[in-house]
């Protein structure tokens, strides 16, 4: 192992030991490198990669030292060794180019402390609708960037990318996949020409109901930064949508308003509300009770379907939170349903893979609230490097 690689491994171990999981790791390591300017760009890249390799193995190597766990993550994430596998896992080196399935078997045969079932927390509660093996292995893939081309901009977007020698892959009619390192600033008009949006999030449009008349009133009730609001505008065409948005966070609503404006679209209304609070909803009720055609609820959740690109959560998720989220989701659903018009639709969305946040909530909506489920299921894009989302469409 080279002196440089040994130093990189030592630095990665030190950074991991300093990290307290109280903030997103990308933010933490960016600040660390800002304070420690001795690292060049290549150093930062290698050290960061080692850290992410450590996070990706979850608790599968519990009890092993950090360097060993980094090596396991590197082994499962790469087909070429940079020296760390030869040092830490010499018996596994000959399988470096094997499939991840085979590599898992090698690790389980050779290292008694390794268990793939511990890569993902509470695996037993992950929906049986998902292939658990494929799902686990997806956490060792590099996350790309997905773009959704907005209506009318297909030709200009692809021509611009080609003119700037930016490689992309077309995934469906409106979706492009690019390497995560690509810099689009100053090249394309984000939110006007393109929307940066995960492939599975783009597929939420498959759950949008058809309407026989227009305009339709859509309330994006847990709107976040507005990706699904823009998706609804483009799906139904801007002139057919009267869009209302809300969120519990005022600052994120301001960001959403800016995105809508940059895209050349407009909102009917935007307001801050805690939808889990029945009293707060009563205040709002007079304006929107019974006159919304489509309520979209992209509810707060564990986020477990996105941990492939946020792997620090594999080691830091508080398992008790799953019950907190489940109760909150039911409160939000219960408080939002009265806004639906007769014959209106409720679209429930999570980026979770846990049954208690998905299938169990479908039963709650149908059995407790009396809505009819039209369609439900998971959007998975593991092979393309995307997230996993769940959606269910109900009618009143």
Description:
With 396 residues, the protein is α/β, with parallel strands linked by helices. It has 2 domains: 3-119, no CATH class; 199-395, 3-Layer(aba) Sandwich (Rossmann fold). It contains 15 helices and 11 strands. The strands form 2 sheets. It has a 7-stranded mixed β-sheet, with helices on both faces. Strands 2-3-1-4 form a 4-stranded antiparallel β-sheet, with no helix packed on it. α3 crosses α4 (66-77). The longest helix has 16 residues, at 3-18. It is globular, with a radius of gyration of 23 Å. The N and C termini lie far apart (64 Å). The model has no long low-confidence stretch (mean pLDDT 93).
Q: What's this model, at a glance?
A:
This protein is an alpha/beta fold and 396 residues long. Helices cover 39% and strands 17% of the residues.
Question: Can you lay out the helices and strands and say which pair or pack?
Answer:
Blueprint: H1 3-18, H2 25-35, H3 41-56, H4 66-77, H5 84-88, H6 100-110, H7 132-137, E1 145-149, H8 154-163, E2 169-171, E3 175-178, E4 194-196, H9 199-202, E5 216-220, H10 227-236, E6 241-247, H11 250-262, E7 269-272, H12 278-288, E8 292-298, H13 313-316, H14 321-336, E9 340-350, H15 359-368, E10 372-380, E11 388-395
Parallel strand pairs: 5-6, 5-8, 6-7, 8-9
Antiparallel strand pairs: 1-3, 1-4, 2-3, 9-11, 10-11
Highlighted features:
396 residues, alpha/beta, Rossmann fold, 2 domains, 7-stranded mixed sheet, 4-stranded antiparallel sheet, 15 helices, 11 strands, globular
């Amino acid at each position: 192992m080279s002196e440089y690689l040994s130093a990189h491994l030592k630095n990665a171990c030190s950074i991991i030991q300093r990290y307290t999981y109280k903030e997103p790791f990308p933010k933490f390591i960016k600040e660390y490198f800002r304070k420690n300017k001795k690292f060049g760009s290549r150093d930062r890249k290698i050290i960061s990669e080692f850290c992410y390799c450590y996070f990706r193995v979850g608790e599968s190597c519990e009890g092993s030292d950090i360097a060993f766990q980094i090596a396991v993550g590197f082994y499962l994430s790469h087909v070429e060794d940079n020296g760390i596998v030869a040092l830490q896992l010499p018996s596994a080196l000959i399988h470096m180019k094997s499939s991840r399935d085979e590599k898992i078997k090698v690790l389980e045969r050779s290292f008694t402390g390794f268990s793939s079932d511990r890569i993902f927390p509470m695996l037993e509660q992950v929906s049986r609708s998902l292939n658990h093996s494929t799902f686990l292995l997806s956490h060792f893939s590099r996350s790309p960037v997905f773009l959704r081309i907005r209506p009318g901009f297909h030709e200009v977007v692809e021509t611009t990318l080609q003119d700037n020698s930016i490689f992309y892959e077309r995934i469906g009619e409106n979706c492009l996949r690019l390497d995560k390192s690509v810099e689009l600033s100053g090249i394309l008009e984000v939110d006007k020409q393109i929307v940066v949006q995960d492939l599975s999030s783009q597929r939420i449009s498959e759950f949008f109901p058809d309407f026989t008349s227009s305009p339709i009133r859509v309330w994006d009730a847990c709107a976040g930064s507005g990706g699904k609001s823009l998706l609804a505008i483009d799906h139904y065409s801007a002139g057919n949508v009267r869009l209302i948005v809300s969120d519990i966070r005022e600052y994120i609503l301001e960001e959403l308003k800016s995105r809508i404006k940059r895209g050349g679209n407009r909102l009917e209304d935007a307001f801050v509300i805690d939808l889990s609070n029945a009293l707060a909803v009563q205040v709002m009720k007079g304006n929107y009770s019974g006159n919304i055609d489509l309520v979209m609820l992209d509810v707060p959740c564990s986020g477990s379907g996105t941990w492939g690109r946020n792997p620090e959560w594999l080691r830091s998720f508080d398992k008790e939170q799953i019950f907190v989220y489940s109760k909150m989701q039911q409160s939000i659903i219960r408080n939002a349903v009265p806004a639906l018009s007769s014959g209106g639709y409720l679209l429930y969305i999570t980026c979770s893979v846990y049954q208690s946040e998905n299938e169990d909530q479908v039963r709650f909506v149908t059995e407790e609230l009396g809505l009819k489920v039209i369609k439900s299921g998971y959007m998975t894009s593991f092979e393309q490097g995307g997230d996993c989302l769940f959606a269910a469409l109900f009618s009143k």
